[in-house]
Amino acid sequence: MNTLLHMALSLAADGLPVLPLRKGKVPFGNCPACAKNACSGRPNMKTSGPCTCPNPCHGWAAATTDPGVIISSTWVRAWREAASVAYHPGGAGLTVVDLDNAEAIAWARATLPATRIVRTTRGEHWLYQGVMQSANAVRPGVDIKSTMAYARWLGPGTGTTTALLDVVRALAVKEPSTVRPGPHAIAVSARAMGGVCRHRTPAYLDRGIAMAEQRITETREAVHATVYRTFLAVLSTHGRCGCLTDAHVARLFTAAQAKGESARHCTDAWTNALTRLGL
Predict the structure, then answer these.
(1) Do 168 and 113 contact (CB within 8 A), yes or no?
(2) Residue 5 contacts residue 69 (beta carbons within 8 Å)
(3) Phi, psi dihedral angles at 230 (to 5 degrees)
(4) Beta strand 18-22 pairing with 94-99
(5) What pLDDT is recorded for position 181?
(6) What does each C-alpha distance from 196 to 192, 237, 238, 243 come to in angstroms?
(7) Rounded to an integer, what distance in angstroms lies between the CA atom of residue 24 and that of residue 181?
């Protein structure tokens, strides 16, 4: 059996969602639209949903623990050409702080909690137990890889994996966005929309928004698709009567951004949901 394929199956059995990488640490594209990473490993931006290629998809979204997928004909061909095995840290409940040089390592040793360390070609991966938003270049030579990201498997490392603490989470926190979360259509009154308000009490709407937040927060895969479907469900129930406010939409956007979505992706998903419902 191919060495990388055997390694992938072993890692998957331990609960790490895996995928093959080509030379240059680039994922394989599993359809013509994704060939040579032409889609940049991202979802279909026209629909704010997952890429339309067959499952398994590409990039971090392709990572799986299913041995049936890993040894499928599509993947077996990929393993023959693969240069390395990668995994989806967020899917395994992990966060990787990728330290790319000696200066970054020195900063981490002086700043971050001690944890399991994996040596890399140019630096180190510090692994923490817990999931957070991924982010590139949070400081010179430092990337965060967790949700919606992949990392190369370079061995189990040394040390004990510690819990993800706020000092690490804070690395991905940016200045508050000035983008308003959602199109102006949400502020149109019920009378203008011609709908009938069923929300006799604020609790009905609040409960619906809370359930939508929970659905986004608890998703572990296909985040883009989940966010879009959730926005669509909220708008189909609450979008025509004018009860939704910017505060409600901001709650949904905040939940989505905590899972790694950008403000632009949220706005695109919201706009697409409005369009589909004719709002």
Answers:
(1) yes
(2) no
(3) -70, -45
(4) unpaired
(5) 43
(6) 11, 11, 10, 10
(7) 37
pLDDT at residue 99, rounded to an integer: 97
Q: Angle 73-81/3-13 helices, nearest 10 degrees? A: 120
Please give the DSSP secondary-structure letter assigned to residue 165. Answer: -
Q: Which residues of 134-170 are buried (b: 16+ CB within 10 A; e: fewer)?
A: bbeebeebbbbbbbbbbbbbeeeeeeebbebeeebbe
Which pairs from 168-175 meet CB under 8 Å and 24+ separation? 168/95, 168/97, 168/112, 168/113, 168/128, 168/132, 168/144, 169/132, 171/97, 171/135, 171/138, 171/139, 171/142, 171/144, 172/132, 172/133, 172/134, 172/135, 172/138, 172/144, 174/135
End-to-end CA distance of the chain: give it in Å, rounded: 54
**Is pLDDT larger for residue 197 or for residue 26?**
26
Q: Which residue has the higher pLDDT, 50 or 236?
A: 236
pLDDT digits (tens, 9 = 90+) for 172-208: 875 444 444 443 333 333 333 444 556 555 677 778 8
Structure tokens at 92: 């395994």
Polymer length of the chain? 279
* Neighbouring residues of 11: CB distance < 8 A, sequence distance ≥ 6: 18, 85, 87, 153
At 185 the three-state DSSP class reads: helix
Token pair for residue 232?
């669509």
State residue 178's pLDDT score.
Answer: 41
d(CA 128, CA 135): 15
- List CB contacts of 175: < 8 A, sequence separation 6 or more: none
DSSP state of 186: G
Angle at 188 between CA 187 and CA 193, to 5 degrees: 145
Name 142's bridge partners.
99, 139
